[in-house]
Amino acid sequence: MIQSAAIDTVLRALADPTRRAVFERIARAEEINVAELTRDSGVTQGAVSQHLKALKQAGLVVERPQGRNVFYRARPGGLGPLFDWLGHYDSFWRGRFADLRALLKEIDP
């Protein structure tokens, strides 16, 4: 059984477009710090830090302190609850696509 609390946390974290953009930048980078995330983002450093806090609480990013900097990287396993939830719909869509394939073969053999 899928834990709905974990799914809710991940979906809530990714529902905000700015937070999703921050996560995408982190996912594309091996590691990135707050200053780099803030640069050219149009968002203040304080706002980026708040978004990072939410992403970290959702288990989507991990941090690595180094001196005065903190580096962030994506935690792919954090998306696990979302993938598990979507996996339940896999059989639904597979069946629909199989029906569509059969119908298309009937129409145009």
Strand order of the largest sheet: 1-3-2
- Note poorly predicted spans: none
Do you know the CATH topology?
Answer: Arc Repressor Mutant, subunit A
* Name of the CATH homologous superfamily: Winged helix-like DNA-binding domain superfamily/Winged helix DNA-binding domain
Features:
single chain, about 110 residues, alpha+beta, Arc Repressor Mutant, subunit A, three-stranded antiparallel sheet, 3 strands, elongated
Q: What does it look like?
A:
With 109 residues, this protein is an alpha+beta fold. The chain has a single domain (4-107), classed as Orthogonal Bundle (Arc Repressor Mutant, subunit A). Helix content is 62%, strand content 13%. The protein has 6 helices and 3 strands, in the order ααβααββαα. The chain has helices spanning 4-15, 17-28, 34-38, 45-57, 80-87, 90-107, and strands at 32-33, 61-66, 69-74. It has a 3-stranded antiparallel β-sheet. A hairpin with a 2-residue loop joins strand 2 and strand 3. The longest helix has 18 residues, at 90-107. The model has no long low-confidence stretch (mean pLDDT 90).
